[in-house]
Amino acid sequence: MDHVGLTQPFDSFDEAGLFYRAVLGLEAQEVIETAAPFGLVRTRAVTDPDRSVRLALSAATLRRGGWAPGVPEPQYVALATDDLVATARVLRDAGAPVLPLPANYADDLEARFDLPADVLAAIREHGLMYEEDGAGGYLHLATEVLGDRVFFEVVQRLGGYDGYGTADAPVRMAAHRRRRQQAAPR
Fold first, then answer.
1. Residue-level pLDDT at 38
2. CA 57 to CA 28: how far, in whole Å?
């Protein structure tokens, strides 16, 4: 397992961070705010020093409407892999509900990063997301929301990347929302 993502009510966000620090001794990381299809989302990771325990806490700070039809507050589990491309192939072959991304997502990555052609091809083929910082990269994919509030991610950390794919969160949330709207009864 890589990490667990827990959505908090807005008025409990700081309290949750304090709880994990005081009770479990986890260190709070920086707060990051990202755009979402419905407003802003605030995220803060809490971790132990060697990063064997990672929780990504999030809360909607400004909200217009629901996160997605029938999804009150999403939670997720991020599983780790050493080869996301191979894992994505196995998931697709098994019929796993991997979240489809918009076609222009890979075009944007191609413009922003100097990725090898085979990596870009895998991103396009399997709906992978990619982010990098000065220490390394982060390949990840998400499933559709299962039931009414849980989804899974599968992640591959490259080099010393220490984040949680936050730059990709708006794309993932919009794709989740679009998928839920397509599945909602009219």
1. 76
2. 10
